[in-house]
Amino acid sequence: MHKYEVDYKNLISENPLNVRGESFKSIQLAKISLNDTFFGYIHHLLNFHQIDLFKKVETVKKVLSRWDANRSINLSKLGLNQIDISTLDNFHKEEIFALESLFLQFHLQNKSIEEFQINSNSLYHKNKLIDSEVIKIKIDPNFIFDLELKTLINSKKIKKIRLDGNQKFQIEDLINVINQLDETTQLKIEYIEDPFINFYESYTFFNITKIPIAIDENLLNFFYNLNNVPKEFPIVIKASLWPISSVIQFANQNQKRKIIISSSYEPDPILKVLHFLAHETDKSTHVLNTHGLENIKYNNFPI
């Protein structure tokens, strides 16, 4: 019989956490110990994750009672080969991520995040230091590229621009926002993440502008069938919404796609798992992609 200890905490962020149009100052976190040994963390982001933290923790406790610590990790196998997969029947994708993330946190505890050589974009905030050649900017139909931002993205330091439209646009609105930029700057736009209320407007926009649309919020509709999606459209995977094993399988099956692993305000130990996942998907697609993994500072972490 395993002995569990769970410590719950709200982690307070140094900066606001913007989630689907709302702003939060904290995430929920559970610290899991097993048989008096620290095992890992599970996090929950309001307005983003569907399954609440307490349900994830109860699910993990049930499954860990059958964990075989002597099994080797198999990234493409449901449960990472750590348990009998029949144990995971009817579990939600977020519950399986929480479980697989714990296995990897435990497995990677003696490795540093720097060991996984990946590139990541910088999310633009006013007065924030941009430390990447790739900048990501959240936009809406009323967005204005002010002089400060135009100066930044026109600088030699910035090689690529990623825009995130969060399903707020009609085609005409998006073209008006893009046309604030001169032609040279527009050529820096690598892609725009799911900007349209109606996804199928993406095809029309791409035919007009040749700017690829990245599938993000709409991924659930295409995860198992990308046959009708242009090969130029990147795939952005918000990792904590999917089983890690499913993401590895997806990368193995779509080796000619640009696959971007995206974080959702995870604290460092879970972020290390996402760096590892990004490293593994790069190996699958044979491309060193630039991912969307943001390091968030919490005032009261670690716990």
CATH topology of the largest domain: TIM Barrel
Instruction: Return the CATH class of the largest domain.
Output: Alpha Beta
Q: What is the CATH-assigned architecture of the largest domain?
A: Alpha-Beta Barrel
Taken as a percent bin, the fraction of beta residues is 15-25%
Order of helices and strands: EEEHHEEEHEHHEHEHEHEHE
Observed structural traits:
303 residues; alpha/beta; Enolase-like, domain 1; TIM Barrel; 2 domains; five-stranded parallel beta sheet; three-stranded antiparallel beta sheet; 12 strands; 29% helix
Question: How would you portray this structure in words?
Answer:
The chain is an alpha/beta fold and 303 residues long. It folds into 2 domains: 104 residues, Enolase-like, domain 1; 174 residues, Alpha-Beta Barrel (TIM Barrel), CATH 3.20.20.120. The chain is built from 9 helices and 12 strands. A 5-stranded parallel β-sheet has the order 5-6-7-8-9. Strand 6, helix 3 and strand 7 form a beta-alpha-beta unit. The longest helix is centred in the last third of the chain and has 18 residues. It starts with a strand and ends in a 12-residue tail after the last strand. The model has no long low-confidence stretch (mean pLDDT 92).
